[in-house]
């Protein structure tokens, strides 16, 4: 779809014909005003595609687009105040659409809203699908009674948990044990706050989107099916594993029925109007590794966990089978009876976003990444062809096909390797990845699970023992395929799929080019990225700030087995070759083909003081410097025109949040955003408390100076009233001018 110029101008607060000259002093401008200013770029008014104009918000560090001298930068950025609110350019405002605890169907709006998708059923009306990723244990416990109106037995359970490093194996407790009932009460409420939600919306005459509370409004929670009968279903070879008898591992006695969905992070929307939701960090709630036949480890492997910071292992309380989580879940928002289908051909791993190439007469291609350090990038290719991209029957194409993993070469080429029983074993070598760690299927297949390998020599006996993926798994050919898909991450490492830098979002432009955000190049306990591919702008290893990559399939064919890749944008400080942001995450294209991006800096790093860039005579790591970037942000990255290659900050989030799921309406007049985990570190902001911290910053040419920054402690967003509990919420950003 090509947006009309006047619609884009409306979204940006500019009318056609006569520009809103009165807005120039408020941060918005028109092409006419910009022309009158000539080369005076101190005002920072930028022009993107088709006269997209706004004044970027001021983030805590200098940007090249400020057009300031070093001395001016030092003066302008000497002090900075962080705001506990969504900060937008002048001329824009936002409305809170729904927040944690609001009524949705017979349940409530969940916690830590993430991916958003608005399926517009008619002009200015539609269904908004929302993911609810996880709960922030500490803040959720502190605020849940006030928000959801229930008193839960936190103290009783924590007293027991404290005696065993926070862990309780609730699965093994007797059904009549009072402690088990208390744990189930806590776990069920927390799982209700995860999953998927659908709410109906309509835009009023003032340009505000409001809820309409239709019959299709519903919640699909972490315990759907447990008591209400709304089980989720599955397709593909994984079903054979769910339904097989005499499993090597745990049996939940449900066959292919699945209780709920949780850890729902990013997602994707199909051209035919369904939404896919990504189950990401399922290892926090259920066991992730599996047995050699693809069956689950015992729920006891991931016990219930309650500490000061965490409240996890919630699947343990209900005996959930771990192999039924970590999938892509498809729903039709408009079908009130649809509670989700998990497509096992898309693979089981820590899914993030998903992107679709659905072109008439060609195979369906579905791309997704595994968001862990050392995670892989995957592509599913259907057996059948697309006949009509808008036909809902296309969902059935995900029932049959093949899953491939991406192998990146350092010369900008790459290939796709099928994850089949016949694929030769060729493990990733620890020496080729940053951090020197690779995770593989456990070589002792009797016990199943996974193992960590840190020495290349340990790969030799593994290759001698197993020749193909089929040697690692047991069962019929179809059962082996199902087990491989269930164990996708570890199987992919075993056949040499490239370890990457936390692939989070996958988006495809109108030309079929795939864009992937790699959020962080720092290695960790799960592994690390390939040394030859994921380097900083100056060849740095362990580069924290991340990248945006472009991938073009050979002959632009969705089913191609080879591709070319290139880095589009690199995070980091401008003085060091970065574009001014850190940890890119969700992407979104506007209808002019320009890119919007939100960042995903971990909460623990937000505004963390850094007085000195040198420690023990050595520069501190990029990971230690993330605090200089302040709060998470939303950026505009024009891919054409005079501003191509520059990143401009459009919005800043409240305290300790991640802003996720950006979604533009078809007329480009409203931008939906999910604001998750406000107050995750400090909880409720008490009496508007703040703290002054010092930061060692660089000008854009590399001169060092000190900034004094005022940082709120905790959050009261979205009410912004003193001592109110922070609540995750979805907002709609629009121009404050009359549309």
From TrEMBL:
InterPro entries referenced in this protein's UniProt entry, alphabetically: PhoX, TAT_signal
PROSITE patterns attached to this UniProt entry: TAT
Pfam families recorded: PhoX
Name this protein carries in UniProt: Phosphatase
Organism from which the protein derives: Crocosphaera chwakensis CCY0110
